[in-house]
Known about the structure:
Blueprint: E1 3-7, E2 12-16, E3 24-27, H1 34-44, H2 52-61, E4 67-71, E5 74-84, E6 87-98, H3 107-118, E7 124-130, H4 134-147, E8 150-157, E9 170-176
Parallel strand pairs: 6-7
Antiparallel strand pairs: 1-2, 2-3, 3-4, 4-5, 5-6, 7-9, 8-9
Amino acid sequence: MTTIENHSDSNRRTTRSSSPAADLTITAPAQSHGADIWRVARDSGSLDLNTSYAYLLLARDFAATSRVALHEGEVVGFVLGYLRPDAPQRLFIWQIAVDESMRGQRVAARLLEALLEDLPSVTALETTITEDNSASQRLFASLAERHGASHTIEPLFEESHFPDEGHGAELLHVIGDLRPGA
């Protein structure tokens, strides 16, 4: 059994469960979380790693559309997103990762659900996923299924668009028809 306490003043939720991810707190990141977000991204082995400076800025400037999962005060997962400037009802998920110690505990799904709950004006979620990232494909497909939402996949960035060699094509996943509280 999992319970989530919503503390809307600070966008903090404490999740208690019988799993190893017990007492997980999901909250908007603070600037001080930037270095730990960078570490989780680096250690994920699958994300494009940006500079630590970028993660510090993202934690500060996009806290309203991002979340961190804390276990015993340590960052064990994060989701970084932003509202599309030309479509503010669309939330673009830029990166999501969970520390190896917490994988398999639905931390990524819980991060996404907490973020969507805090953004009731969002009616669609977008993300890009490479064809070989089956874990992320399953994560977003299950999110769409839980919400009874549509899920479309289309090309966005071809491999040739990237200046660095070896970067796979990024497919755009759009989960639409999200309803507040669904």
